[in-house]
Amino acid sequence: MNTTILGIESSCDDTSAAIIRDGYLLSNIMASQEVHRKFGGVVPELASRAHQQNILPVVSLAVKEAGIDLSQIDAIAFTRGPGLPGSLLVGTSFSKGLSIALGKPLVEVNHLHGHILSHFILQSGRDNVVTEFPFLTLLVSGGHTQIVRVDGFFKHEVIGTTIDDAVGEAFDKCAKVLDLGYPGGPLIDRLSKEGDNSAFKFAKPKIKGLDFSFSGVKTSLLYFLRDRVSEEPDFIIKNINSICASYQTHLVNILTEKLVTAYKQTGIRTIALAGGVSANSELRERVIDAGKRYGWKLFIPEVKFTTDNAAMIAITGYYRYLEGYRTQLDVQPVSRSLDYA
User: Fold this and answer.
1) pLDDT tens, 218-237?
2) CA gap 211, 168 in Å, rounded
3) What is the spatial distance between Cα 195 and Cα 37, in angstroms, rounded to a whole number?
């Protein structure tokens, strides 16, 4: 069949390009932007400028590593949204230009849809086992926290979502107030390994159903640190590991409790993780433990597929292309959430 898709991802601060052929990953190249670290978070204007510099060499390298010629691709899959408007515009505009130059169709992809379908990426030389329908996905990232019921490649239902902030924001806020650096999640994860996760307590949101809330958790952390530092100025320095451990465990508790509730309500035993926060080691361990307890069939992505990468855009574009989806050249990026289909 030899259906070959070029995927392009530029939703935030990572420029990525990947080649998928018949579901198999041939290449997945990424350029990260170190400039944001000194600001403690992503600066949108700097991100869009870096995408402009990176996108051509990243695509060129992805094509070279895949061992193909650009003329051999069947379509160009690109992230339409959600994400930063300027970053999305770079990827969308580049994809349009390449589409015109090559005479190849465009296939727009929802960034979140890409995270969900990352479990269908095939790799040569691996014992590939793909997710079975239906399954539940805990989708956790810097911008989104959702539980999604997935009944097919294009049949999704969000059964739980955050009513305010995403869990990734909660991690980053903690790292910022502790002056750890950016991105915060991996730093907190590393420090937590040396701390006591039962040392401190934080407010637990009382949200009914499967929805999440993390704004109150962040506020609880701020008040906790303010009060303790006023009593003991070097409190943070002395307790940094246990603060991180206690806060991380608190967030992971919220996520896993909701996921278990979703399983009990739906009866679906096939469970998947997706999104940048799914790289968190404690979250992975807790979900694995829950899986053993409840008899789940788990799909936990490789860390390289948890971040914003083009492989997930290419595989989603591949299935959309086979289904007959095509995108017109007048398409515009959308920064807000889109329908998964």
Assistant:
1) 999 999 999 999 999 999 99
2) 15
3) 24
332 within domain boundaries: no
CA 93, CA 42: separation in Å to the nearest integer? 21
Tell me the Ramachandran region of residue 337: left when phi exceeds 0, alpha when psi lies from -120 to 50, beta otherwise: beta
Q: Does residue 201 sit within a domain?
A: yes
Residue 32 has pLDDT above 80, yes or no: no
| CA nearest to 162, candidates 209, 84, 214 | 214
Do residues 278 and 220 share a domain? yes
Full domain range(s) for residue 186: 135-304
Q: Are 107 and 183 found together in one domain?
A: no
Residues 29 and 52 in one domain: yes
Spatial separation of the C-alpha atoms in residues 155 and 89, rounded to whole Å: 27
**Phi, psi dihedral angles at 151 (to 5 degrees):** -105, -5
Residues 135, 334: Cα–Cα separation, whole Å:
27
Phi, psi angles (nearest 5°) of residue 10: -150, 40
- Cβ atoms of 246 and 228 closer than 8 Å: no
Q: Which pLDDT score, from 0 to 100, does residue 184 have?
A: 86
Buried b (16+ CB within 10 A) or exposed e, 4-40: bbbbbbbbbbbbbbbbbbebebbbbbbbbbeebeeeb
Model confidence at 35, in pLDDT bands (50, 70, 90)?
A: low
Count of helix runs (H) and strand runs (E) in the chain: 9, 10
pLDDT in tens, 266-297: 999 999 999 999 999 999 999 999 999 999 99
* Rounded Cα distance, 45 and 199, in Å: 40
pLDDT of residue 340: 58
Residue 196 lies in a domain: yes
pTM, rounded to two decimals? 0.94
Q: What is the pLDDT of residue 38?
A: 59
Lookup: tokens for 296: 């789940």
